[in-house]
Amino acid sequence: MTADERGLPGIQRDVPTAIHVQISEHIRLRIASGEWPAHYRLKSEPELAQEFGVSRGTLRRALTTLIEEGLLRQVRGRGTFVTSTTIEPAIAQKLSTLSEDFASQGVVTTTTVRECALIVPPKPVAALLDLAAGTPVLSLTRVRATDEGPVALLSNFVRTDLTPGIERVDFTSASLFGVLEGTYGLKIATARRTFGAEAATPAVAEALALDEGAPVQYLQQVTYLADDRPVEYSDVWIHSGRLRVTSLLVRR
Amino acid sequence: MTADERGLPGIQRDVPTAIHVQISEHIRLRIASGEWPAHYRLKSEPELAQEFGVSRGTLRRALTTLIEEGLLRQVRGRGTFVTSTTIEPAIAQKLSTLSEDFASQGVVTTTTVRECALIVPPKPVAALLDLAAGTPVLSLTRVRATDEGPVALLSNFVRTDLTPGIERVDFTSASLFGVLEGTYGLKIATARRTFGAEAATPAVAEALALDEGAPVQYLQQVTYLADDRPVEYSDVWIHSGRLRVTSLLVRR
C-alpha cells in the first residue's frame, strides 16, 4: 500500500522540497491529527520505506529529524514510537517519587516551597503516623512546575521524632526522600498509595493554575520504614493535562 | 494514658451496658469521626486493653464485634486495621483486571453489557492495535456495579483477527481476560496503563450516575501478548467515590 492509498498527500518528486523533508512532514501531520497517538509503534523501517516508495537512507533521515524534534523515540529492540506529550511518571507502579521520576525521564522541574514548618497535624494524619494527638510534625507544602506550568501540589506531613531539625532543610533543592534516606539514614521500605479523581478546591486550583472544580488527579500516601513505622503522610494533587500516572505491567 | 485522658467518654462501670459494648461504641465513634481513618493500625491488644482499663478478653470481644461489622480487619503478623469503605483494586500495580481484583477482595459486582458488536474503531485505536484503517474490532462496552451502584464504565476494543467469533460471547458473566486466555489461548503478557482525572461527559455521567462534569478517574490501557502484538485497547472511567486505585509499593 502506498502513502497515497492511505489517504495521505503523496511524495512529490517534482518539487524543490527534499523527499525526506516531505516524509517528516507527513509523519508530523499524522501525529498532530492524533491518527498516530502517543505510544504508537511505527512499522519497521523497511516497511515504511516501501510504503513511502523511498530508500531506507531517506526514510532514516526523516525519522532522525522527528527524533531530534522529540516527536519520536527509538527503543532498542522494540522499534520507533510516538512520544507522549504529557509527563508519565510510574509512581503507581514503583515506590519512586515524582522528583526521582522526573530526573530519570530528564524532565526539568522547579520547586516552590509554600510551607515548611512544625504544626500539629489533623487527627486522621496523626493516627496514620502513629502519633499521639498534639504531637507536632513537619508540614511541607510544595508546588512542582515544568516550563509549561505547575504539574503537582504536594502536601507532606513528616514525623519529626525521626527527623529532628528537618524544618531547617531547604526543600527548594533537596528532595524529601533524599533527605529522609541521606541526611537521617532512614530505611524507607514500603508505601500505600491510593489514586482518585477530585474536583479542584480553591487552594488546589490556585496552585495548579486550573479553574476551581476542574478534575485533578489526587494521590494519598503513607510511607513506612523497614521496621514498619510510618514516617510520612502525603496528599498530592496532579494537573492531569500535564502529567499522567503510568504503569507498565507484567501479567502474573 | 487512659481513654479519658485522650478526650473520650470513659468506660462506665455503673451502667447496665456491658463494658465490651461500650468499648466497641468508642471505637466506632472514632472511626465514624475520621479520627481513626481507613488503614489506621490500632495499637496492640495489650496496649489498648490497658488504655481502656479492661482485660484483654473484654477488649477482644469488642474488637470481634467490629470485625464482624466490617469496620476492622486483622492481618496476621501485622495487627488490626480500620477497613476502607471504598473498594481498592491494585490495578495500577498489577496486571490484574477489575473483575479479578473484585473477586480476590470478595466484592460482588454485576455487569451490564451495553454494546458487544463489530465496529471500525477510531484511527488512533486502530494505530495502537497495529491494524490497517478500516479493520473491524470488537467494541465491548460494560458497566460494573456493586450494591451501592455503578463503579466503572469500561469500553474495550479487541482485535478480532486473534479472537474470531468473540462477538457471540456473553460478557454478562464472562470476563474479557478470561475469554482471551481461556477460550482463545492467548498469552497476555504486558500492558501499559495510564491514569488521569477527567470531567464526566454526559455519557460517562449517565453510566456512573454522577453529575455531568463531576471528576472521574480515567484509565487508558493497551494490552500486549507475549509476542508483543497488541490485543486490546481500553478506556475505563471509574467512580472515584466508590473505588480508589491502590498500590502497595516496595522501595527499590
TrEMBL record, chains A, B:
It comes from Streptomyces doudnae. CDD domains: WHTH_GntR. GO terms for molecular function: DNA binding. Coiled coil: none annotated. Keywords: DNA-binding, Transcription, Transcription regulation. PANTHER family: MANNOSYL-D-GLYCERATE TRANSPORT/METABOLISM SYSTEM REPRESSOR MNGR-RELATED, MANNOSYL-D-GLYCERATE TRANSPORT_METABOLISM SYSTEM REPRESSOR MNGR-RELATED. This is GntR family transcriptional regulator. Residues 17-85 form the HTH gntR-type domain. InterPro entries: Bact_HTH_transcr_reg (IPR050679), Chorismate_lyase_/UTRA_dom_sf (IPR028978), Tscrpt_reg_HTH_GntR (IPR000524), UTRA (IPR011663), WH-like_DNA-bd_sf (IPR036388), WH_DNA-bd_sf (IPR036390).
